[in-house]
Specification:
The protein has eight helices and ten strands. By secondary structure, the protein is mostly helical. β1 and β2 form a beta hairpin.
Length: about 300
């Protein structure tokens, strides 16, 4: 009778597997016990992230899934229900590039509630946890920035977007990079996405998931204007859908499952946040800061100001 290294008997379709690979008919196959209906809670102990010299986090007990899966099928385990934020969005500067829809007038100031409703809709469309979108947006638009810093940031992102638009009209004559600095391929928009990253995410959603990065009601605006320009910063609402497409791409990459549906562990959430920033020490710090925002919000210590489920 064949034995595995740990002493277990190798099972065939009719019972224990013999050395000659023929099943023994003397005993019925050994069946695995049924999985428990309720999963035991995770213990509050450090869990390795698999990366050297990276801050580790303790997991909290699992909360019933229904408490943090209100709008998406893909959620997060290890956190409780985060309080909805209804206050002001402190950053970025509230000057938005936005093409109105057929039933809208061009808004000079878009209400914060509308911005948060767009974030929620984008998260639902790509089935990504709203918490991850809110954390990353807060990372990219620091709440503690001064008025001057917000204005400078708006100017920089506007210039980058303008160069990308010009590059489209000038048949790719604007350099992607110059003197080691990103020009047409720079980061822009509320989600601060680089053009190659945005276009790769849009292509992934379109080709691998068979899902356009923008649904038709978001894509076609007033007078039939097609807002799927694949240019970051060109339209705030489109930016949020491109961001959701990129987060979906990262989730699938980290889980190894295209169109993954299910729960994400805190380690996986950290990997998504880290990957949004790239790699290296800066990405590790970006992930640490993002996880602190997420866990602080779950504990009620500080809000996620883009989070309104």
């Amino acid at each position: 009778m064949a034995e595995l290294p740990n002493g277990e008997e190798l099972q065939g379709p009719g019972g224990p597997q013999l050395a000659g690979k023929a099943p023994s008919l003397g005993r019925p196959p050994v069946m695995a016990p049924p999985a428990p209906a309720d999963r035991p809670p995770l213990l509050e102990q450090p869990i390795s992230t698999g990366e050297p010299k990276v801050k580790q986090y303790g997991y909290k007990p699992i909360v019933p899934e229904k408490q943090f899966l209100p709008a998406t099928k893909t959620g997060i385990v290890g956190i409780g229900k985060i309080k909805s934020h209804t206050g002001a969005i402190p950053s970025p500067l509230k000057l938005w590039w936005y093409v109105p829809e057929n039933n809208e007038w061009a808004d000079i100031i878009i209400p914060d509630e509308k911005i948060r409703s767009w974030i929620k809709s984008a998260a639902e469309y790509q089935d990504v946890p709203l918490e991850i979108m809110a954390v990353i947006l807060q990372q990219e638009n620091g709440a503690n920035a001064t008025g001057a810093q917000k204005f400078i940031q708006f100017g920089e992102r506007t210039v980058t977007t303008g160069l990308q638009v010009a590059d489209e009209w000038l048949f790719d004559l604007v350099p992607d990079r110059a003197f080691g600095v990103a020009v047409a391929d720079g980061s822009s928009g509320i989600a601060n996405l680089q053009r190659p990253t945005l276009r790769d995410a849009a292509s992934y959603s379109e080709k691998s998931l068979k899902r356009p990065p923008l649904p038709d009601d978001v894509r076609y605006r007033i007078f039939g204007w097609d807002q799927d320009t694949r240019i970051s910063g060109d339209d705030v609402k489109a930016d949020l859908y491109y961001q959701a497409a990129h987060i979906r791409q990262l989730i699938d990459r980290i889980t190894g499952v295209p169109g993954y549906v299910g729960n994400l562990t805190l380690d996986q959430v950290r990997s998504v946040i880290r990957s949004y920033n790239g790699s290296g020490k800066k990405a590790n710090k970006y992930a640490d800061d993002g996880m602190k925002k997420l866990l602080d919000a779950a504990d009620g210590r500080s809000p996620l100001y883009f989070y309104q489920p």
